[in-house]
Amino acid sequence: MQTVSDIKALRNTLAGWRRAGSRIGFVPTMGNLHEGHLRLVRRARELADRVVVSVFVNPLQFGPNEDYDSYPRTLEADAHALRAERADLLFAPTAATLYPRPLAAITRVQPPPLGDELCGASRPGFFVGVATVVAKLFNLVQPELAVFGEKDYQQLVLIRRMVEDLCFPIEIHGVPTVREADGLAMSSRNAYLSPEQRARAPGLYRTLRWLADELRGGRRDFAVLEAAGRERLAAAGFRPDYLSIRRAEDLAPAAESDADWVLLAAAWLGTTRLIDNIRVISD
Ligand code: PAF
User: Fold this and answer.
1) Fewer CB within 10 Å of terminal CB in the chain, N or C?
2) Does the predicted TM-score (pTM) go above 0.85?
3) pLDDT value at position 269?
4) Residue 63, SS3?
5) Which of 148, 152, 160, 186 to mutate to test the pocket of ligand 1 (most atoms within 8 A of CB)?
């Protein structure tokens, strides 16, 4: 596996692969790779001839009071794990390489209004940061396909929209969330939890599973269910941020006529914000 940090070296390698007719698969990450990320790499490996993974902690998607400085940076271990997964190229640029101008002065990608809901409501500017960096990375790597985790479901929906709206010729593939044995969705931020918080954390998934069972059982009083879910989260020791039942395809508010919903939640344990979701398809 080759590791490059500058754009010229990235483009040189990619040009050679393209001349050889290779289909390029891309997995963008912020590093600190865990099994959830490695599944994305495996999926890309199945779908493409060459697999490029980026590791870049993107300053543009962190708010002023968020964890940009303390976000775990583990490039050596990440490279080791990617080699074991037979990734072909690791692109690990510095912030100055991707953003040579001050962030306040750069061109940004503005997502549709959905970008201001759910995670975007409590993290203003987050999806502008995600869309901008993903668009830049897509332009640099120019892959045939890119793979994202369904754990960040709203991100996945918005990236599919961006690809359609901005005419990127890239297939987007989603990969199901990978969970710990007790149901907690894998996330780099789980490492921030104290042992007591870690013990409570699976309560988020438990609450979503309860809601999914209610929907599968035929309940359609969405607002009542959302309120009951938030109460359950609070009783389990979380500070709920949002809990929402949406149409899976585009995250429009849920309607009885839909057949495919996604239940999304974000909740705080101390200073750590966890997110999770479950899909419910009615038969
Ligand atoms: O999901 C992530 O890790 C990030 O939001 C992404 C897509 C790599 C953009 O920085």
Assistant:
1) C
2) yes
3) 98
4) coil
5) 152
